[in-house]
Amino acid sequence: MKIVSRNEELLGDALSRIPQSSSRTSPSSYNKLIRFEDINAAAFKIQCAVQKTPCMYSRLSKQYGLDIYLKKEFLQYTGSVKERGVFYLLTSLPQDQQRKGVIVASDSNFSMAVAYHASELHIPVFVIVSTSTSPARVKTCREYGAMVISYGTTAKDSQTHARRLAQENNYLYLEEEDSAVYLSGLGTVGLEIYEQVPKLDAVIFPAGGHCGLLAGSAAALKHLNPHISVIGVESESFPVLQQSLRAGHPTEEQACSNRHFYGDVSGPCFGSNSLQLTGKLVDKVVAVREEDILISMLRLLEYERATVDAEGAIGLAALIAGKLPELKGKRVAIAVCSGNLELHLLQQCIARALTLDNRVCRFSLVLSDCPGDVAKLLEILAREEARVLDIKQERLFVTSELFTVEVTCIVETRDKIHTAQLRNTLLERYPAAKWTER
Asked: Are 66 and 327 in contact (CB under 8 A)?
């Protein structure tokens, strides 16, 4: 059944000025107009292979003063929302092209989704990665059923090799972009959120350069209810989307020194379709600090038992950072859309987040080197219910008076208030104690 809305004209106007040429290898139908019917068709087609993930009320609601509903897209088989667009894209390919196969050249969530769903659809799939790619990502793509080839030391080398293989063997070279087919698949998230959470006031999505989820879902949500606020969140380190919106065209890729942490959020603004839809339909785009993203990852792990990456946590980070005060008391859904964080990064992120949240702290003080003085310090810490993570004693290079020992402790506390209480107690007993600020 067609749902009639005045926003259909808005969708048409948003794409009316899009150039019809593209430098990427793609099906000829890529640059057609995105309509609400396309998103509906995508929802019908992907339901057999892509999970309808829950959108659940969060315990974090009371902490931040609004009703928060988390759309848990990280529960998809490959841990990413990209499966929606990828599956619809692959099933829309002509049968002769499906028989020939597809090829991708990256270690992104998009490539992992292609590897999995192409294999499930019996489409030959090749993934070309650089030699610097994480072994875990290579292993995962192979387990999904793709033929993985390591080539070159940079992403550009692997992309050039993939294009050459595609030309020589009649494979279709796939690259994440903002085709109508791909955006329609991603837009099904907006449809599901609208169905799952009644009386919505706002929905928050990750943005950045790869803003297809934001654009496609905005098209669905604004069609169904123009009064729902659609908000995008990107990193302050590279506000690609905000710069592109101001310029009126996709800006060049910015250098990102931490791509392993930011993942797909750090990519370039890859197309006019998404940019035009975002400019017309998205109410607000805000930027958050890396510290806010890390604390958001910690909150999701503690309160929701959700292990997510930067892309998955960045939506909640906007609330944590206080960037959306107008949402107080409102009913808000957040797309938690990716959970593909490598284990070594997870350990670093959680440790850093605990420090930023003032729950792991360090102090040092000088004690007389007498039996029982260190024991008295530990008694104070036990009485204050602080957990000692590490303690070191330095005798040889202490610059104060003789026969003293410098003790450095790293302790864990419950929260910021507990940390302040512990600090005051220690300063009363040891006025010369040095507290290391984060």
From this structure: yes
pLDDT digits (tens, 9 = 90+) for 123-175: 999 999 999 888 999 999 999 999 999 999 988 999 999 999 999 999 999 98
The pLDDT tens digits of the residues spanning 71-88 come to 999 999 999 999 999 999
For the record, the structure tokens of 165 come out as 């293989």
User: Which residues are within 8 A (CB) of 4 and not within 5 positions of it... i.e. 6 or more apart?
Assistant: none
The pair of three-digit structure tokens given for residue 256, joined into one six-digit string: 């990102």
The pTM assigned to this predicted structure is 0.87
- The domains of the chain, with CATH numbers, are 36-77+202-251+259-353 (3.40.50.1100), 81-174 (3.40.50.1100), 359-436 (3.30.70.260)
Question: How do residues 317-327 score in pLDDT, each as one tens digit?
Answer: 999 999 999 99
Tell me whether strands 360-368 and 434-436 are parallel, antiparallel or unpaired.
antiparallel
**Computed from CA positions of residues 146, 152, 154, 157, in that sequence, does the dihedral angle turn out positive or negative?**
negative
Q: Give the pLDDT band (50/70/90) at residue 397.
A: confident
In this structure, the strands spanning 360-368 and 404-412 are antiparallel
- Put the strands of the sheet holding 102-104 in their side by side order: 147-150, 125-129, 102-104, 172-173
Q: How many CB atoms lie within 10 A of CB 406?
A: 18
Whole-angstrom distance, CA of residue 109 vs CA of residue 120: 17
Pairing of strands 434-436, 55-57: unpaired
When computed from its CA atoms, the radius of gyration of the chain, rounded to whole angstroms, is: 25
CA distance 177 to 418: 48
Q: pLDDT-based confidence at 11, cuts 50/70/90?
A: very low
Q: Is the dihedral of CA 205, 208, 213, 219 positive or negative?
A: positive
Q: Which residues contact 262 (CB under 8 A, 6 or more apart)?
A: 208, 235, 237, 256, 310, 311
Query: Would you call 118 exposed, middle or buried from its count of C-beta atoms within 10 A (0-12, 13-18, 19+)?
Result: buried
